[in-house]
Design goal:
Layout lengths: L2 H11 L8 H13 L1 H19 L6 H15 L3 H35 L23 H5 L2
């Protein structure tokens, strides 16, 4: 076993060698005896495990009881109804959103296809047309 392999398994399984796969555990025990760097890495991992054990989350016994009660209530119902409820809850918001998206897409397509006639501007029919040539020098200065 190389030091890199040892560090990999140490990171993956922790400092408790009982959690390691049996083949790797045997190789790691032999490697620890032969390598002071491996022994130091194991000691450091044990300190880290001890700190992590102190920060363990407390059990939520009330939440566990509620979960067990809900599961027990579900077990009493027919399996098809439980699956149907799950599918209904899973897809009902999706179908309503999909229907809105489809309606908006259809509205966009219809709006893009329909030609709306806009009246053309007829300068001759206009009562007053003022172009840049109609403005006097004093009017231009006041702009």
């Amino acid at each position: 076993m190389t030091f890199e392999q040892f560090k990999y398994f140490l990171d993956a399984y922790g400092a408790n060698l009982a959690r390691w796969p049996i083949e790797q555990r045997i190789a790691a025990q032999a490697f620890i005896v032969s390598s002071s760097a491996a022994a130091a890495a194991l000691a450091e991992a044990r300190r880290l495990d001890a700190v992590l054990d102190l920060a363990a989350m407390p059990r939520d016994e009330l939440g566990e009881r509620r979960l067990v009660a809900r599961l027990a209530a579900q077990i009493g119902r027919p399996a098809q109804r439980v699956a149907g409820d799950f599918i209904d809850r899973l897809f009902s918001p999706v179908w309503s959103r999909a229907a809105v998206v489809a309606a908006m897409a259809l509205l966009g397509i219809v709006t893009g296809v329909i030609e709306i006639e806009q009246p053309a501007f007829d300068a001759a029919a206009s009562d007053y047309v003022q172009g840049p040539s109609d403005l006097g020098a004093t009017e231009l200065a006041g702009l």
